[in-house]
Amino acid sequence: xxxxxxxxxxxxxxxxxxxxxxxxxxxxxxxxxxxxxxxxxxxxxxxxxxxxxxxxxxxxxxxxxxxxxxxxxxxxxxxxxxxxxxxxxxxxxxxxxxxxxxxxxxxxxxxxxxxxxxxxxxxxxxxxxxxxxxxxxxxxx
Length: 141
What we know:
The protein is built from three helices and nine strands. By secondary structure, it is mainly beta.
């Protein structure tokens, strides 16, 4: 019988391939409306995509990396390591009817059933409700 000192990742997850993407969002609280774009790294854990990291990025680089073409549906819950929005540090995430995502800081509103928010992508103000699944896309910076 051989002793397994360093078990492979397959033993625990069934795969060595990590599935990860970057989804774009905007922060309405950033110091500049021109520089409020950020990327959220999402990683697949089983059948669920979770937010693992966030970073500031400019529109040109996001386009060159292809982040503006990503589209994914999931709950996008944060992992314990997720630092929040790189501008305001919020963990809250909303999706506008325009299909784009953005953070929001109001902790009281995040516990409410509905809240009034303005999308920093299209400027539309509306009532937002809590949901289990978001269908996020990049593009249209």
